[in-house]
């Protein structure tokens, strides 16, 4: 901690993974940090709260995957133990059980992607269909998360990508599109091929163990964010909820000097935005200083996806083979997941009945239904997967509608996503929709970009030590060799072939 950093004021907007990460590191470096959260609790969309009956709920269940190296390092630093052991997952369709996944790290490690291919247990999908994915490996090699790779693939839909590389219709319908519906939260014709390749590689294809996942043993708000916020406040940072940002004050030198929340002004030497795309668009809509910049006006070209999070308490114990389950084929453009909270959450270990979390993504058609109608649909879908739910009675419920809640990585959206730096010299961006070379996704990406924004502040203000950001695990040697060869061929072809208009 230095005298210089103590004199510098930083305002962080948004108290999710990105904002808390930036705040925590800057506060440890001695900065005067104020974290502003529009909602009633820190945590953004993963903040938990209590129902009227005192039961814990949250806005959907979030897994913590094997490649989340930076989040796991944070958990160790905080000295908390919020996670289950590694769990197995299953996948259902209206026809029944489709796929079971092992704990991949417990099996002999094979070169990527052989482990994923050989160890995943498909119940119905023929081998010939699975083999049709082999030509897609070229796209996986060609997409290296560079800006050029994003531009090459971002204007193509995921559906076009899989079709062009010869993936069978059945493999697409029963394997790849279900991954998109619960990974990018939209059907393939609405997803960028670039985002698809990035997501699939990070979570499934880069290394055999990448698909292994643990779950929080309660709400993320209670198990992780509450102790984390306590640590942040002990460093001297201020965490203020129900502070909705409406403008940024900018001086004649192109610097932000303060953040406006209604009638309040929080003075700042640097500002970090750490909100989702929907929240950022609302801020821009109210801010003349941000609307004056094309990069912020262009955010209106980005979109978000509706989520429905339900939690049902049943009157009896029901045997659920796997704690986490993804489902497809129930609605043409909607994916959903269900979780056995008796197996995952500490507070339901000894519950006399069964507690299920069922979350729906791209859930546009459900949001206007009544709670009663939604509960009937959820129970019918659960019964299709596990028939014992037919006789069970719902004795309590929670239905949370989350309009425009998660980022939509639509085709062509990359050009409108913001990098970490902006046209303001001291305004920095973070979040799971920010352009980053790190290669991570989802919560890990949000946290990493928060640390990167903190490092940008440290570089700009000239005080403190930068946060150590752990890189994603290096590509295996055969992937590195293939990418190096592919890059050489690309450079050679550029030198001897015309510059076609398509990227």
From TrEMBL:
Domain Amine oxidase: 18-458
Gene Ontology MF terms: oxidoreductase activity
InterPro entries: Amino_oxidase (IPR002937), FAD/NAD-bd_sf (IPR036188), Zeta_carotene_desat/Oxidored (IPR050464)
Name of the protein in question: Amine oxidase
Organism, as annotated: Tolypothrix tenuis PCC 7101
